[in-house]
Design goal:
CATH topology of one domain: Serine Threonine Protein Phosphatase 5, Tetratricopeptide repeat
Distance between the termini: 103 Å
Strand content: under 5%
Strand order of the largest sheet: 1-2
Structural class: mainly alpha
Mean pLDDT: 79
Largest sheet: 2 strands, antiparallel
Number of helices: 20
Shape: elongated
CATH architecture of one domain: Alpha Horseshoe
Order of helices and strands: HEEHHHHHHHHHHHHHHHHHHH
Number of strands: 2
Radius of gyration: 46 Å
CATH superfamily of one domain: Tetratricopeptide repeat domain
């Protein structure tokens, strides 16, 4: 309280002293510029100068605040836009997973408006439109994606190729992928899609060349690579045989099949079928019998029934020896029945067929028994077998229809 009183008294005395000084020594200032002059006392000019400095200081503070607030507003708006874009993108992905293609497309497009890098949004919108069969929109969104990022050409072409492969437009997909194949090392996925496209058009020779690159970049797992090679060599074997010696050409193709694939039953079966179709019966029989001794397979065994000529008696004896170890094998009994019929050993044939029927009742066995009964003049039994076989055929067809 005492300090406050002293301060007030000092301020009062200072004010009185200053006022006395101003009245006794007002001073004089003259400012002239051009035809204009300004006259003032020193004290008034000093006060005016102080107020002018304060004014400029306040103006500068205000400008600084406006600039900072503008930057903050810009940052806030950008962060808000990014957050909005992420939310819309998230909703688009959720609807995509749920199969709501139309909603998904709309969310991706809205997200693109708020995104600084809308490439992914347009690519996903194109995929959604593809699901909706909106071909014009697909093209439009792919163009928008290309405009948004000039370096994304390969990604856009891969997206386009994937969509075409999905609807089995293999030739169009192939054309796109050939363009996209610029650097296999940087874009190995192009090779994977190329494999699908070549498989679709059954271009086995191109696949044979491509598979070496596939191995180099280790695109597929060992199992998937083996499946691919199996399909390729199976397709190569099925290519049309031209020339004067088709068997020689077929054997040459077989020799080029890798050993690990050549030992697989589906490939061996395909080769044997082609040998039979080209009347190389002896070669087909030798390969069949030697393979069955190592790897028993019903699909191979039944091919013996389609081999014409040769020593049927020898073949019949070999199968009867095998029957000692496989007396309950319905396929072996069926083949023995077919061979016995061809050898005109009809009683044995009937016995084999009936035993096969008791183990594995099938349409083939009923048809063979029907034919055998008709051959022997047993028409009533023949009709009965054919009728039962027809019923089994109906069941098979009904099952396939349900699938």
């Amino acid at each position: 309280m005492r300090l406050m009183l002293i301060s007030s008294l000092a301020a009062l005395l200072s004010g009185i002293f200053l006022m006395t000084l101003i009245e006794s020594e007002p001073g004089y200032i003259l400012i002239a510029f051009g035809r204009y002059t300004i006259e003032s006392s020193v004290w008034f000019a000093s006060v005016a100068l102080v107020f002018l400095l304060i004014f400029f200081y306040l103006v500068l503070r205000l400008l600084r605040k406006l600039i900072l607030s503008h930057d903050n507003l810009k940052v806030w708006l950008e962060s808000r836009g990014s957050k909005r874009s992420a939310e819309l993108m998230n909703n688009g992905i959720i609807n995509w997973i749920e199969g709501n293609w139309e909603k998904s497309r709309d969310f991706f497009l809205k997200s693109a408006k708020h995104s600084e890098a809308p490439l992914l949004n347009y690519l996903m919108a194109a995929r959604a439109s593809h699901k909706l069969a909106e071909n014009e929109q697909v093209f439009e969104y792919l163009q928008a994606a290309e405009k948004s990022d000039g370096n994304a050409g390969v990604a856009i072409e891969l997206t386009q190729a994937e969509m075409r492969l999905e609807v089995e437009q293999y030739e169009q997909a192939l054309a796109t992928l050939v363009r996209a194949r610029r650097n296999a090392e940087r874009h190995p996925y192009v090779l994977e899609l190329l494999c699908k496209a070549y498989l679709g058009v059954k271009d086995w020779n191109s696949l044979l060349k491509l598979v070496e690159e596939v191995k180099k970049y280790k695109i597929f797992s060992p199992k998937k690579l083996n499946d691919l090679e199996r399909s390729i060599y199976k397709g190569v074997l099925q290519l049309r045989l031209d020339g004067n010696n088709p068997i020689k050409e077929l054997n040459s193709r077989w020799g080029k099949v890798p050993v690990n694939i050549r030992s697989e039953i589906p490939i061996i079966r395909q080769y044997i079928i082609l040998l039979i179709k080209n009347s190389a019966y002896a070669h087909a029989e030798d390969l069949l019998l030697s393979t069955l001794r190592k790897d028993w397979d019903a699909s191979l065994l039944r091919l013996l029934c389609f081999i014409e000529g040769g020593d049927l008696g020898r073949r019949f004896k070999i199968l009867k020896v095998w029957l000692r170890e496989k007396e309950n094998d319905g396929d072996l009994l069926f083949c023995l029945g077919k061979l016995a019929t061809n050898l005109e050993r009809f009683d044995e044939a009937r016995e084999f067929f009936i035993k096969s029927l008791s183990i594995n009742p099938s349409l083939d066995v009923f048809m063979e028994l029907g034919n055998l009964s008709a051959l022997l003049g047993e028409l009533e039994e023949s009709v009965d077998y054919f009728t039962k076989g027809a019923k089994i055929g109906e069941k098979i067809n009904r099952g396939l229809t349900l699938l």
